[in-house]
Amino acid sequence: MAKKSMVEREKKRQRLVKQYAAQRAALKAIISDESKPMEERFRASLKLAKLPRNSSATRLHNRCQLTGRPHAYYRKLKLSRIAMRELGSAGQIPGLVKSSW
Q1: Which CATH architecture has domain 62-101?
Q2: What is the distance in angstroms between the CA of the first residue and the CA of the last residue of the chain?
């Protein structure tokens, strides 16, 4: 089980990303628009830098829904390998069979 503080920190980041997504997209559109004057693009880049760091989507890290484990994460199931193995052994994941020989 991951530390609760780390899981909560990740939830806070997800909230911030969702909250600032439209604002960040608008500023990035202004910055990348070559037809706009250089001063306006520079002001937009300064505004983008003033936004919280954790509002950037690149700071998000995938975590297991059950345990909060950040490593060995399967995106399709949103589970870590350990949680997936336990659920697979219990027969709770359709189509997953734990191999044994």
Answers
A1: Irregular (4.10)
A2: 29
| Token reading at 58 | 């690149």
- C-alpha triplet 56, 59, 60: angle, nearest 5°: 105
- How does pLDDT run across 21-50, given as a tens digit for each residue? 999 999 999 999 989 999 999 999 999 999
Give dist(CA 40, CA 46) in Å, integer: 10
pTM, 2 dp: 0.76
In CATH, the architecture of 1-61 is Orthogonal Bundle (1.10)
CA distance linking residue 59 with residue 80, whole number of Å: 19
